[in-house]
Amino acid sequence: MLQSAEQALATARALRLDFHEAEKVWVEAREFLGGADDLAELERRADLEVRFSLFLLATHYWEGRWLLAMEADLAGIVASKGKNGKATVIPRWRRRMMLTPCAVATFASLPGKMTYTRRDGGKWTTEYLFNFIDLLIVDEAGQVLPEVAGASFSLAKRALVIGDTQQIEPISSVPRPVDVSNLRHCGLLLSEAGIDTLIDRGICSTNGSAMRLAQQACQVSPYPDLEKGLYLFEHRRCYDEIISFSNALCYQGKLRPLRGKVPTEAALPALGYLHVDGRALTSGSSRGNPLEAQTIAAWLDANRARLEARYGRPLEQIVAIVTPFGRQVREIREACISRKIAVEGREGMTIGTVHALQGAERPVVIFSPVYSKHADGGFIDVSPSMLNVMVSRAKDSCLVFGDMDVMAAAKTGSPRAILGDFLFASELNALEFAAEPRADLTQGNGQIQMLRDAAGHDAFLLDALSGAGRRYTIVSPWVIASTMERVGLLAAFKAAVQRGAEIDVFADPLLNLGQAADGLTQMEAVERAFSKIGVRLHKLPKLHSKIVAIDTDILCIGSYNWLSADRHGQYARHETSFVYRGRHLEEEISTIVGSLRRREK
Questions:
Q1: Which tens digit of pLDDT belongs to each residue from 183-194?
Q2: Which fold has domain 235-429?
Q3: Three-state SS at 137
Q4: Model-level pTM?
Q5: What is the DSSP string of 426-479?
Q6: pLDDT tens-digit series, residues 481-496
Q7: Which residue, among 360, 421, 425, 426, has the nearest Cα to 393 in the 3D structure?
Q8: Domain boundaries, the chain
Q9: Which of 167, 460, 508, 562 has the most crowded Cβ, counting Cβ within 10 A?
Q10: What's 444-600's CATH class?
């Protein structure tokens, strides 16, 4: 017992002495750097004043060591050319590193570089330099499959692994049953119940990565609500309003935006959208939305001069377009080509899935989500990484061109719903632009009628209400009772109901909170007026479509607020809608009405 206590005392005294020595060195270092008490300030001073000079000194030192090594055995070095034995390869690598302390390679090529040969039973065999590399630095490790990285890690003593598991995941070509079978064969999976543990560790090919494996091995975990490891929280690429979305989606609010807020004179909103009432079409396992593609190309063509004047470079170098599906990539490329927007070669616009922008950036990024009322859109919500990468590549503006009603109907807390919350936070985020007509709603020689102004829209609706229609569905996010009365719509509604027609109006309660007469809100005033004449009012938050559907054979889609728009004065705007006619519209009208009913429930 006495001997044990004496050893413990000696150890404590040695530790105390080491502590005092370390404290003395720390004080000297702090005084050398200006004596600040703030560690961050000391780090900044060290970066600016000391570390680069030390790096240059180390570089010159090792250059001198290389000259001495070459001088000591130049003849032997020359004679060893072409030899690949271990006694030759290891000194060769050490000399190389004196001049180039960091060598760059891919995971595919590195193992083949770190080899030597030896005689084995009269034949030459290849061996690997296991545990030889002092430090293996891995960048973008979140995109590397575990089995791809494993061989290179076996060659290193230590590893510095850099990446982000909230960015795009690696793509595995291994089916899950094969993945499970391989794990069993290697003795890593003893029972089916253990698969969840291996998934959490990131070791599975189908959903793991080198970054997740490194996080499991890391002993540093200073942030309880984040995964293990140290984090670079400073963000300088995007305006604060843009990266705030990624902060809310993936990083628990830990990112520190340092670019600043979008200036008031900015040409585009930081996070903006254009509602497009298109249709998602399935092609094999992929999807496309021709109307989204055509509208994006038309918008780029119309805004080319303004964007090029703003940034002083070609449009193709300003904008990138991202979409979840390869089919939509082709649709957008074809639409851009028709507008003389370059899409080929180094000078062409970047158009691709989100992988095309991983690690890149553009002043403006456009997202084409493809999904419409005809499809659920859940694929986008499978992982937050898709929207995180897409949004965070935009330096100045991220714009979404798509069916915003689908975005608004997404499950609360899902990536699409969070993006919708940011997009719909301000009416200023909505872009004004007339969508292209939908070719899929025309059949045979059917003509599309275009409505261009308030008079044309009013005439169409009043004429339809006075006809023989039995069921009317009107989608108008904004509603104003006094406007409807002044135009004659309330009287037309009343007459239609009296002859037996059914009229359903869908409006957004969040947009109609302004004051009307008698102390009522606009929504309350409309509700009172409709209740008197038998029109059914449906309150649907975050509504974006502007639609009139009549029975099963007339459909009008556009950007006109049917029941609220100013017909005269400074706020009157030229809106465009397209009227389609024909029995083939029954399915489309049923889809539209069905999606409204589902959202209402």
A1: 888 888 877 777
A2: Rossmann fold (3.40.50)
A3: strand
A4: 0.84
A5: -GGGB---PPPP-GGG--TTPPPEEE-SHHHHHHHHHHHHTTT-SEEEEE-SSB
A6: 999 999 999 999 999 9
A7: 360
A8: 84-170+208-226, 235-429, 444-600
A9: 562
A10: alpha beta
